[in-house]
Specification:
- The complex is a heterodimer of chains A (396) and B (127).
- By secondary structure, chain A is of the alpha+beta class.
- Helices cover 29% and strands 35% of the residues of chain A.
- In chain A, the strands form 3 sheets. A 6-stranded antiparallel β-sheet of chain A has the order 1-2-3-4-5-6. In chain A, strands 8-9-7-10-11 form a 5-stranded antiparallel β-sheet.
- In chain A, helix 4 (161-182) crosses helix 5, helix 4 (161-182) crosses helix 6 and helix 8 runs antiparallel to helix 9.
- The N and C termini of chain A lie far apart (99 Å).
- By secondary structure, chain B is an alpha+beta fold.
- In chain B, a hairpin with a 7-residue loop joins strand 5 (95-98) and strand 6.
- The termini of chain B are far apart.
- The model of chain B has no long low-confidence stretch (mean pLDDT 92).
- Classes of the chains: A alpha+beta (396), B alpha+beta (127).
- Chains A and B meet through strand 1, strand 2 and strand 3 of A and helix 2 of B.
């Protein structure tokens, strides 16, 4: 038996959840008519009498324990109040016997508990459910963008602070850059104009369960027609997620939205693929009948990022210069030279130049032929330059 | 066709159970295991999460991994003197279903009439 109908100490108990079982429940949560929770664990059986540990536990602590935040040993040995009940109940229903005594946690024999480090690992909602998006926008009279973030190895409604903060910055930057592109204000770098920031600003409204949900609501109320400037930016952002890793559609969309959007979206994708398994987004406005949603897995984010990062070699030139050979790594085929303007140039040694570099002396002045390749990432506008040492000679 | 004990409730074993097969482990008192080591417990299972509690109660607990049964024995003092028995199950020996999934290796096994599990289990060690 697990609990007795005549328990005075705990009230009328009902089972909330059974965690451990072997032919019979071994560890479970119980709740009485006042809503008080108890964690019960079978500690031993002696002469047909079961010996149980009954631990009063708060809702918060119960959720932490259930989701693997606290191990079984610690939850009993370091409880919230310094008292655990040792309950003896007859194992057979024919014997009407129970006894209950309060003991100090220090007095719990260690062999009544598993070794430290034994955790439950159950996905657990540790905050209350949020209202549906289409309902909430009408309650708030604001635009709402709900992000549902699935972090790897996290079972409670918790998120790593740095990652979450950076992700929220990414999302706001994307909205600002889309807002800027739509107003044809084409600055690629530098701060966003204040008017763009103001009209696209989102506030963190609520946090909800389901891995980790966060509601972003527009800081400004809609106009008399029920429209907000940020509506279109959010719509475009959600469409980007919907497009996923469809290369043609992604490239076309980002070309129309401008280079800065591509760069900001790339940052979001890279953050996503770093720590998250999946992201769902859902948005609505007070004027919309239904919300619109989209979802992206880590793999899709990685693929989309690869598409954006593709670079194209746009210009290749060979440059002759005189300089000092200040570094050469023959194993990695890498070189470093300093030209007459004291600028350092690093890059790869071509196969044709390798023999000459092997015979060269560091610190000496030589004539170099350097192949310069400029590449551009069409979607972000980023440029890069690569150098390759083609030829090395004694200067004339 | 398997014949189930007469005290089974309707629709028991659970419809989402599958034929038993493979190597499984059970804690037993006797060496060699006796039929007493495979009797369902009278203690109610106290939950309907995995199906009709009356049906779950008719099954017996097994683990499908050796590490799983070792961990279970370590966590509960009443089991420390029990022995670990290993058995190779084949489909005519009943149905099984993963239950109480917080313990990843735990299954409930429903044993048909005229099947004596003790004949296929061997005590392998006592740590």
């Amino acid at each position: 038996m697990i609990f007795h109908s005549k328990f005075r100490e705990f009230g009328a108990l009902r089972v909330v959840e059974v965690y451990d079982y072997y032919d019979r429940p071994l560890m479970l949560t119980l709740k009485n008519e006042l809503g008080h929770l108890f964690l019960a664990k079978l500690a031993d059986i002696e002469d047909q009498v079961g010996i149980w540990l009954y631990l009063p536990i708060s809702e918060e602590r119960y959720l932490q324990f259930r989701s693997g935040g606290i191990d079984t040993y610690t939850v009993f040995k370091k409880p919230e109040i310094p008292s655990v009940y040792l309950v003896k109940i007859s194992e057979t229903s024919s014997e009407d016997f129970y006894a209950c005594v309060s003991i100090s946690p220090e007095d719990i024999p260690d062999d009544y508990l598993p070794v430290p480090g034994s955790f439950l690992e159950i996905d657990t909602m540790t905050v209350t459910q949020l209202e549906p998006v289409s309902v909430k926008v009408k309650q708030l009279n604001r635009v709402l963008l709900r992000l549902k973030l699935y972090f790897e190895n996290i079972r409670r409604t918790e998120a790593p602070a740095k990652t979450l903060g950076e992700l929220l910055i990414n999302v706001q930057d994307i909205l600002n850059s889309i807002g800027q592109a739509l107003k044809e204000n084409m600055a690629i770098t530098g701060p966003f104009p204040q008017s763009i920031v103001t009209s696209n600003e989102m506030m963190v409204g609520a946090i909800g369960p389901g891995s980790f949900q966060i509601d972003l609501i527009s800081s400004r109320l809609p106009n008399v027609l029920g429209e907000s400037e940020v509506d279109i930016a959010i719509k475009e952002f959600v469409e980007l997620i919907q497009i996923g890793n469809d290369s043609d559609r992604l490239q076309e969309k980002l070309r129309t939205l401008h280079l800065r959007v591509a760069g900001k979206y790339l940052s979001f994708l890279e953050k996503m693929s770093d720590q998250m398994i999946k992201t769902d987004v859902e948005w609505s406005t007070p004027m919309m009948e239904h919300s619109i949603s989209a979802s992206m897995t880590r793999k899709t984010a990685i693929d989309a990022a690869t598409i954006i990062k593709r670079s194209v070699d746009s210009e290749i030139t060979n440059i002759d210069m005189v300089g000092t050979l200040i570094g050469a790594n023959l194993r990695n085929h890498e070189f470093e030279i300093e030209n007459v303007n004291e600028e350092k140039i690093t890059g790869k040694i071509s196969d044709q130049a390798l023999n000459r570099v092997e015979g060269a002396i560091l610190g000496n002045v030589y004539g170099f032929t350097i192949r310069t390749t400029t590449s551009i990432k069409p979607l972000t506008g980023e440029t890069g330059t690569r150098y390759e040492l083609i030829k090395l000679d004694i200067p004339k | 066709m398997m014949i189930w004990p007469q005290d089974y409730p309707p629709d028991c074993p659970c419809s989402d159970s599958s034929d038993v097969r493979g190597k499984v482990y059970r804690l037993v008192k006797h060496n060699p295991p006796s039929s007493d080591d495979f009797i369902p417990s009278p203690t109610p299972c106290q939950t309907d999460k995995y199906g009709d509690p009356e049906c779950i109660n008719r099954g017996i607990s097994i683990c499908n991994t050796y590490d799983g049964i070792i961990a279970l024995r370590k966590d509960y003092k009443p089991f420390e003197k029990l022995r670990i028995a290993e058995g190779e199950l084949t489909p005519e020996m009943g149905k099984m279903k993963r239950t109480f999934i917080h313990r990843k290796s735990h299954y409930t096994w429903w044993v048909p009439e005229k099947c004596d599990p003790s004949k296929v289990f061997v005590v392998i060690e006592h740590e």
